[in-house]
Structures are given as structure tokens and as C-alpha cells.
Design a protein that fits this description.
Pfam families: Acetyltransf_6. It comes from Caballeronia telluris. The protein is of the alpha+beta class. It has two domains: 137 residues, Aminopeptidase; 128 residues, Aminopeptidase (3-Layer(aba) Sandwich), CATH 3.40.630.30. The chain is built from eleven helices and 13 strands. Helix 2 runs antiparallel to helix 8 and helix 7 runs antiparallel to helix 8.
């Protein structure tokens, strides 16, 4: 039997999780905090409050100005690793990279202007043993990094674009994925969670049962999710069993263009479709807000098999990295030693 709050609808199964406002309504609210203030291309992950929390305040901004106007910026983290100062992607920060204000009168050579400005930003980065960032999928200035001695590599995510009907999105999913969602909806009730502490407590407890720790840090995660909820820059969804216990959860964050699947966790004894159920609700919420849904990375084939069942389209993310010679030698020695100790050599 379908639990209260998740009734079956028509044949394409539109779960009745209410989304109260569209993206345009949400960001037009006078009471809405200036979460997305700044340069128009800035993503959620470029926002100062996000970087303050994820780096512990250890970040800075490379800026390019023209006639006193900021036309480009690039945030970067700064911390020490032993003797070395390094700049890497902050935790839970999916993408960064240059943010460049469009020309007032773009021409066919706009790409050349943007690469030149990106080169100016790169020149303003501090001297570090390592500089590494994953670029937003909309950033096309990776060539500027390659010309400055960075290695450029590719990773991938899956996206579902806005503008399609709910029925279209549902029928684009694999049949077995739809069936898993139906079965989960018969046993679980999905609803929004408003307590970041409860979310992190459940997340940590599930890791502890697997004898693992929170790699992001529980304290940072609590602060970040609490601020996300406060700024209305995301939401937490939970799947609850008939006895009211929490079976699974996911965290979502968004900016003006994209909703990101950020975190998830489920109890070992929960229904195997609990995360799929919550993802379907999240995809519907993104569609209602007129946002792209980003599944946020494909680290392995198992996850690709699972996520591709939702019908997304692959999108490329470029990672740029520049490593100083002495640090590269140290890293190679450490990796070789680790393989020797573990018997992998």
C-alpha cells in the first residue's frame, strides 16, 4: 500500500511531492537572501558563504578589472600540506573555475577575449606546489590553463535538462528503475526534512555501522547544510518507514540554473529503492523549478549503471591541475611506498 504523502498518480507515476514555487518566482522574492549576488555566471559553489564554510575561511579571489569594473574572478582555496602550500578543490564543492562577465556587445571572437581574461586570472594565482580545480560544465576556457602548463583531464556527470514534461521524464527512465521506484513508494513515505543535524546524525550513523568515518567532517557538513536551508539554496529529503523511522535521505542544492545531487545515505536494512524514490522526487522538483538536474559525477561503472536508469545525458567536466616538480617527486615516492606496504607493487 502506498503510504500517505506519496500517492500514485496516473500511469507515469507523478509522485505528489509539492513544489511551491518555480525558479523564477523563487529568485524574484524580495525576502530571498542574495545567495546568487555577484557576476552573472557565478554558480552556487562560487558563493563566498559556501567557500567560507567548505574551506574554513582559507580561500582567496583572483580578480580582473577593466576601468574599475570587475569583469572576471576565480576563487581558490589555500592550505598547507606539510612543507607545501597547495590549492585544491574544497570538500563538497563540485565545480569552480573562472567566472567571466560577458562582453557588452559580444562578437564572433568572444572566445578569444574570454581565453585572454582567463589567462590573466591564472597569472594572479599564488605560487603553490599544487593548483587543482574541476571546472563547471559551462566553462570553456580550459585551453587557457593548458597554455599555462596545466594538465587538463576529463570527468563526466549526467544531467536532465529542464523544459520537458513530467511524463516525458518518467518514460525516459529505464523500466526497471520505474519499477524500483514504484515498489519503494509502496513501503515508504517521502517528505522534506528541515533539520541539518538530524540529516548528519543519520549520515554518520550509517557510516559508523560500516566502520567508516565522515570524510567531509561532520561539523563542516552540519554548518554547510544548515546554511543551505537558511538561505533556501537547497533542501533535504527523507524516506520514512511505516513506523516513522528514517530509511534514507538525500541532500540537494541549487543555483539559478542547476539543482545538484549533493549527498545521500540509507540504512543497511532499508528498501533498496529508497534512494531511487528520493531522486525521482528531486528530479520532479528540478523540473518544477525549471532547473537542470545534475547527478553530480560518475566515479565508477556501478554508479553509472544506477544513475543512467534515470535517463540523464552525459556532460563533460574538465579538471585542471598544475604540480610543481618537487611535490610531484614526493607524491610519486609516497604512492610507491604505499603500494609496497600494501603488497600492490
Amino acid at each position: 500500500m502506498v503510504q500517505s504523502g506519496i500517492p500514485l498518480g496516473t500511469s507515469f507515476f507523478p509522485l505528489n511531492f509539492e513544489v511551491k514555487k518555480s525558479a523564477r518566482e523563487l529568485f524574484a522574492e524580495p525576502s530571498m537572501p542574495a545567495t546568487f549576488a555577484g557576476l552573472t555566471e557565478r554558480s552556487l559553489f562560487h558563493e563566498p558563504w559556501w567557500l567560507d564554510i567548505t574551506t574554513g575561511g582559507n580561500w582567496a579571489l583572483a580578480v580582473v578589472e577593466n576601468d574599475g569594473e570587475v569583469i572576471a574572478e576565480m576563487p581558490y582555496s589555500l592550505h598547507r600540506k606539510g612543507l607545501w602550500r597547495i590549492s585544491t578543490q574544497p570538500p563538497l564543492t563540485r565545480t569552480l573555475g573562472p567566472v567571466i562577465k560577458p562582453a557588452k556587445k559580444p562578437t564572433d571572437q568572444e572566445w578569444r577575449r574570454r581565453i585572454g581574461i582567463a589567462g590573466e586570472l591564472i597569472a594572479k594565482l599564488p605560487s603553490c606546489a599544487v593548483v587543482q580545480q574541476t571546472l563547471d560544465t559551462r566553462i570553456a576556457e580550459a585551453v587557457a590553463f593548458a597554455l599555462q602548463g596545466f594538465t587538463v583531464s576529463a570527468s563526466f556527470t549526467l544531467k536532465i535538462p529542464p523544459g520537458r514534461s513530467e511524463e516525458h521524464v518518467w518514460t525516459d527512465m529505464r523500466a526497471n528503475t520505474r519499477n524500483v521506484i514504484r515498489r519503494a513508494a509502496e513501503r515508504l513515505t517521502a517528505r522534506e526534512m528541515h533539520d541539518a543535524d538530524r540529516f548528519v546524525d543519520f549520515y554518520d550513523a550509517n557510516l559508523e555501522r560500516r566502520k567508516r568515518g565522515n570524510v567531509y567532517g561532520s561539523r563542516m557538513m552540519r554548518e554547510l547544510l544548515g546554511e543551505v536551508l537558511k538561505r533556501k539554496a537547497g533542501m533535504l529529503l527523507g524516506a520514512f518507514a511505516a513506523d516513522g523511522s528514517l530509511a534514507a535521505e538525500i541532500a540537494l542544492v541549487w543555483d539559478k540554473t542547476t539543482m545538484y545531487y549533493l549527498l545521500s545515505s540509507r540504512a543497511e536494512d532499508s528498501h533498496s529503492g529508497s534512494i531511487a524514490l528520493l531522486l525521482w522526487i528531486a528530479i520532479r522538483a528540478a523540473r518544477e523549478r525549471d532547473l537542470t538536474f545534475d547527478f553530480d559525477g560518475i566515479p565508477n561503472m556501478n554508479l553509472l549503471t544506477f544513475l543512467s536508469g534515470f535517463g540523464g545525458t552525459p556532460a563533460q567536466r574538465l579538471m585542471v591541475e598544475r604540480i610543481r616538480g618537487d611535490y610531484a617527486v614526493m607524491r610519486t615516492i609516497r604512492r610507491s611506498a604505499r603500494r609496497y606496504v600494501t603488497g600492490e607493487a
